[in-house]
Amino acid sequence: MTPSKKWGCMNIAELQKKLLAAARANPPGDRVPYAFEKRVTALLAARAATDPLTLWVRGLWRAAVSCVAIALLLGAWALFNPTASTNADDLSQNFENTLLASVDQTDQAQ
Amino acid sequence: MEQTEADLIAAVLRGNAASFEPLVQRYSPRVFATARRYARRESEVEDIAQEVWLKAFEKLKSFRSEAPFEHWLMRLTVRTCYDFLRGHQRNRELSFSDLTEPENDWLERFVVQPETASENAEAAKLLVGRILERLSPPARLVITLLEIEDRSVKEIAQLTGWSVPLVKVRAFRARAEMRKILANMAMDKYL
Asked: Which domains does chain B have, with CATH numbers?
């Protein structure tokens, strides 16, 4: 049979069925490595005994993330809140007027 | 006297980590058998099993004792295996030159006389393993659970956390994906 004829004869659906049957006929083993449960318990014990420095660093990271989030929120609020920006304008204007009041008076007197 | 499963879980939740060991001993064979369906290397299988147990310990508080512990653990195992598949996606293309001689012979026998190509042959087992490795993670998971482990769609939905319609859609796509890999491989061999 020529290769192209073989290709023509090949039933892909049948091949799929056959291969899946092969997988069903050969289930994997359930062998567990020696003392695996001891290894898991040792890992859990090691995790529980994490050093205080790690806990402190973890706490600091959490605090840093919260601070950044708060700063971003406040920044966004200051930037997009129209009332806040109007107040800020007024404040700067008032400050400028107060500071330059003496100069203005001198100008008016002249 | 041997402690019951519920006693062991209650003891672990009270802070007695040593009570976790009998649970690991009792259910590890099932965890390993499941992990071996998705990972080929023994070191990867051990990593998956270890991760399953570490997660089980961490999440034990979320275990509701109305359902058996084994069901809860198998859900965790299947999801960990799926994460493993997603993290270890390999080259999807399977070319004829990748096949070993016994695999080639088996395929040849299948083409000439399909009934003589036994599904119990070692070559068939290796070939299907190779093809499953080429599937996308959701396709491999759904083919394994539905076609190889013979589970129902509802069971798969519970194990994976996917909805029933999603399982059906993924099963349809997975079969098509597998046929495409087989067709490409055969075309590479014969044309």
From this structure: 1-88 (1.10.1740.10), 92-191 (1.10.10.10)
